[in-house]
Amino acid sequence: MVFVDYPVRSDWIMRIIAAVCGLIAVALGAFGAHALRSTLAGLATADIWQTASLYHLVHSAVLLCIALAWPRARLSFWLFFVGIMLFSGSLYVFSLTGLKTVAMAAPVGGTCLMAGWVTLAFGRRRD
Question: Are the C-beta atoms of 113 and 59 separated by less than 8 Å?
């Protein structure tokens, strides 16, 4: 087993946020696949829940990568975090309620996710 010696900085909060996002992504994915299966099938929104869960989990892993490998890429980190909340969060709520006004946050969240990738790709490395 390999142990990683984390630098002692305020970056620990980024690791915690990334880990909690990943935990919640797995929990909501499983909850949707099992406990909410019939509800989502009845509302015909299982595919929307699955999309929300996939984007949530993938971008949670990105948050962890940034926190561990490039913690000074804070703008990218926070864009991804806000993107997860708005994109996946609005899709989760829409899947259960059918409220189209809530779903309108998804494009804003998707834009934040794309902006996170752009800032990650073109941001200057200062460490």
Answer: yes
